[in-house]
Amino acid sequence: MARIKQRWLPALLVPLVLIAGILVGSIQAGAAPSLPPKTAQDLMAMIANSTVRSLSGTVSQEANLGLPDLSGTSGGPGAGSPLEFLTGTHTARVYLDAPGKARLQILDQLAERDVVVNATDAWYYNSTDNSVVHTALPPRPGTGSTPSEIPRPQAATPEALATRFLAAIDSTTQVTVGQSATVAGRSAYSLTLTPRSDGTLVESVSLSVDAETGLPLGVTVRAKGQAEPAYSIAYTDLNLATPDASLFTFTPPPGASVTEKAFPAKPALPVPAVPAPEKTVPAPGTTPANPSSHARPAVTGKVWDAIATLPAGSAPPGLTSNPQLTQLLQPVSGGRALTTSLASVLILDDGRVLAGMVPLDRLESAAAAG
């Protein structure tokens, strides 16, 4: 597999603060199936050549990042907070149909939240307060039908997370084949990525690869010094048939309050985009405070121990103003910090923000050197 944009694996860094809605879950594994032997290169090719574009299934989350319970956080009326998905267990139904159709049903206790995206509209529904947020999507230039700047919605799938890890593979990563397993009732190979770095918090990443289609069925991320997986995502059931078209339409229920929101010029993506492999790259899903300055984070290091530094004034506003996030920050010399088992974020008093899948002391050293 080609080395695609390897510099921005830290796109998984601000994994913990900015990744909104990736639902994670432990792999439901049965007895190891007997499968024909494959090399690591074979498995990566299977994933790259997978033709699965339509599916329906259930994913469940169990995140153990060393954070306190965030299930009570809220993003305001009609919205939950992305922070809630960084702890505990969550379950969701996912429906995908190419091109550009997706439905995500987050199954809360005694409630449900739905995100529906099709060629012309994006809807968010919260049954708790019967609220709806609607955004009309602009057409892609030249087609008149498919939304522009909107990638295939797959934030809640193992494929989305697996793609970002695989895109960063280079000489800093050892790639091996693990023991096969049964995931969501399907036989799967196991591909393990192990960092060749002492400076990262990540111990390993394991991908479960469907033996028939090459579709990633699960991703498990382990942190150094932690017995249980720190972060993982997997299907617990999966159907590769095309979902019914009616699932991608939405009509506000009677009595619902509907809020119209304009499509942003530069939308915040559900999963950070992987930019070009330069040393400095655009901040994923963010707009600099001064657009004309084209503020870019400077990236030092490689892949697993990479550190991204956002200059003063270019950090996403929610990073410094979100009250739920503020509760998680600890005071440190020269600023505040968020530490988890997989990543650290350092917010300096001078406005700079450093982040990486590294211990906090490495961010502090980088800040002092910069």
Structural summary, described in words:
- This protein has 370 residues and is mainly β.
- The protein has 6 helices and 19 strands.
- The protein has helices spanning 15-18, 40-48, 158-166, 318-321, 323-328, 360-369; strands at 54-64, 87-97, 101-108, 111-117, 121-126, 131-136, 173-177, 181-183, 186-195, 202-210, 216-223, 231-239, 257-260, 298-300, 307-310, 330-332, 335-339, 344-348, 353-356.
- The strands form 2 sheets. Strands 1, 2, 3, 4, 5, 6, 7, 8, 9, 10, 11, 12 and 13 form a 13-stranded mixed β-sheet that branches.
- Strand 3 (101-108) and strand 4 (111-117) form a beta hairpin.
- The two termini are 34 Å apart.
- The model is unreliable at 1-29, 74-79, 144-154 and 266-294 (pLDDT under 50).
Task: Let me know the largest β-sheet.
Answer: 13 strands, mixed
Q: Got a strand count?
A: 19
Estimated radius of gyration = 20 Å
Structural class: mainly beta
- β-strand percent reads 25-35%
Task: Name the average pLDDT.
Answer: 78
Number of DSSP helical runs: 6
What fraction, in percent, of the residue positions are helical? 10-25%
Which regions are unreliable across 5 or more consecutive residues at pLDDT < 50?
1-29, 74-79, 144-154, 266-294
N-to-C CA distance: 34 Å
What is the molecular shape? Answer: globular
SSE succession: HHEEEEEEHEEEEEEEEEHHEEEEH
